[in-house]
């Protein structure tokens, strides 16, 4: 491995990685005479109109010329040849473009000239990639809530989806962490969650390019898309801006489920400045952006009623059974005698707020107070060292502090104030408490144009994002001890402070306690070195390059550092599945599952990602371009700087601890990741282009990679243990149980659950293909095509210590029980998973003409995956991908400068002229979700699914928020059997949103102007609902109670000064 990495580093410096991914593009063309004969020896000059920096080349014997690695912007292309008129054309170059400027020279004197009007190429005639692009004008003028530059990726078409409202978006049916995030063409991927490490300000963004299929060989490490943000550079003119944006809830609509309109205050301000430090040679650009947000989050949760707190469950339509009776018999009148109450459980029940909404489900509404502050700054310097050498450097910084609110208000127990959090499944409050993120990014780039046909480039990139989250500050460090729990809070270990997690299953019920996985701290230190050599050889443009990313990262996070007590209805049901209630089980103090997982170490994980590539863009004929590439990459297994890793090896029957001689604990390096890229672009008569191709890409495991090697002796594990009462037996777990003291587990006698990769683990692989037809209609382009991906070697957790379906103790039926009686789940991370994605896409784009431009994309798609059944680790099931299978997606962007006031003067012109309207519209059909049982019937310590006995779908006219689908189509399967419901068989509500902006420019002198803006997000005030509760047996089954992070109509007012 050392020799492989060394070889890559030598190649990087010897060749000097390709750069089309960064803020550069190519201008290519063929020069011919009026009869079509090619002309060699023509002098061609490309000059940037913003910096006055030019490059010159000479056409080859075939009449071809090419300029590569040109910074994006507006260029003037000039051709000179004795005996012919000089011809000049202007072309706008965008990131990754291979803009074709073919020239036909006319006979005449060189002093005579022909000028072609400025334009940007609408048809991409020299590339087979599938991508979309947003220019700086679109980025700055489109209504973007929060003015976060990363959000532009969600409006770029090609079916990205961002339902979490973060920088991480789903592309082509893949999870957010399967994308490659770039800034200026260099790696910006946050290693753990897959989002952006640093997020430039909107005012610093020149372009956003989203590639979704068949990338150049210079790009790898992705199954989804390549999201590239290009930052602005300075020019020969001083240009800048100052801005202020504000919001207030008085101009907003009320959230659909909110009892009252929540607080929503935003104050965001900043500015930018760019220009020359020395004309034609040195340029700078700097920006600053600060936002201050005070915002309440509306929640609706399910809490116990006043009668339930007193033991009276007669409001329910289900019987409450006494788990101590045999056979089980219902409590008389469905009332649990007070003498049976667990005293600690009664205290916990008192933490719940009283219902303020009618009914037994979704009966408490609350606006949780939250806040956030943001700071962003970017500094970029571009410098021309010589006529052959240019460099640029950039520094970016982000800082965010905030508070995620709990889903119900604080309560009082004795002299203590307690934040119960009331978190439910996956909504915004799941990590209630304060959080902090910051990120640094340093980039340096050196480009040398050795000759018109030979260029080298060397790049360095450092990015360091850090995220931390803490538990609610209201809960004191000794709160569990105060309530009577022992061996939970350890005064010497602050991670254990606060309350255990009291989970109510199904998780649509409000839980109590400090959130899981909190406190958390994730940190990345990523160093990247890359280089490339580009050689023009006739009609060939050949790029060779390589690079290496040194990733240093750590995740200090424990799943249940204070312990888990999970409650469900199985403990108080009939013993065969009918009846029971989660809150009744809590009141009796009888949990169904207990567990504790504590990892007090801050790991120092390491990995390396070397790669090499070659790309040949060959103009084979006057109408055909071939894009041929090959990429080879290596993803080394994760190590830890102090060897604090361990893994259970089934073939040895024991835990192996990392050492200097075996730092990967047996995980082998995979050297098989070879990715060919084959594409074509064929120009046909009548302004038509046919494009298509095939490619293979790879990506390593991302989220939580280091956590899979958090095993004894570096963890303190206990459980999960499942009570026999969940399958009709006598209770064996109690709220009064005392977990073992917090000591590191002996690797020779492991306890709890384990997790690790298989030794022959491989990076996930995707085979991608596409075929498109594009037609130019005047200033418009229509594109119709098909894209597909077939991915394999996808991560699947295979529990090799999973008991078979049947009666009796879960723990005693585990395969390794006799050898390790306290060992529970052993999750082996395998490569057994597969995914498919198929999509038809239609795009219509209108170039800016007459003040109007617009782009619209429509995608019809289907995303499926192969997964393991949670009750049997030998059953593989195909199904639609939950959340990510979205069949229909449409996005439209419109910008229109209103023609009012043209030809007028004075006051009339001042009032009527300068108006502009921008609109962004999105529609997505509902994402897939899976129906599961609220309490398991298979008795394996995990989840399962019920039986389908009818049509689960309802006509749209019969759907309500209380019954989104036909709940009567499902039935509980017989005990100790698996149900027949498949994965991802249901789809949730569709999502619709239209964002609108209206701006008025008040011109002053020269290029200076003041712009007044009104932005309205979700102008139609359409509620966008989360999927319904899919927990069969829950009182909320089939109902919808949340809009998640979707917003009601909100207004934002802005003032910008431009110069």
Give an account of the 3D structure.
- Among the domains are: 17-119, Immunoglobulin-like, CATH 2.60.40.10; 851-862 and 881-1059, no CATH class.
- With 1059 residues, the chain is mainly beta.
- 5% of the residues lie in helices and 46% in strands.
- The chain contains 7 helices and 53 strands.
- A hairpin with a 4-residue loop joins β32 (646-649) and β33 (654-657).
- The strands form 10 sheets. The chain has a 22-stranded antiparallel beta barrel.
Provide a short characterization of the protein structure.
With 1059 residues, the protein is mainly beta. Among the domains are: 17-119, Immunoglobulins (Immunoglobulin-like), CATH 2.60.40.10; 851-862 and 881-1059, no CATH class.
Distance between the termini: 54 Å
Determine the number of helices (DSSP H or I, runs of at least 4 residues). 7
The gyration radius over C-alpha positions equals 31 Å
What is the typical, i.e. mean, pLDDT? 88
- Determine the strand fraction and express it as a percent band: over 45%
pLDDT below 50 for ≥5 consecutive residues: which ranges?
Answer: 1-21, 158-166
Largest pleated sheet? 22 strands, antiparallel, barrel
Binned, the helix content reads: under 10%
Count of β-strands: 53
Structural class: mainly beta
* Shape summary: globular
Give a quick set of tags describing it.
22-stranded antiparallel β-barrel, globular, mainly beta, 5-stranded mixed beta sheet, Immunoglobulin-like, 53 strands
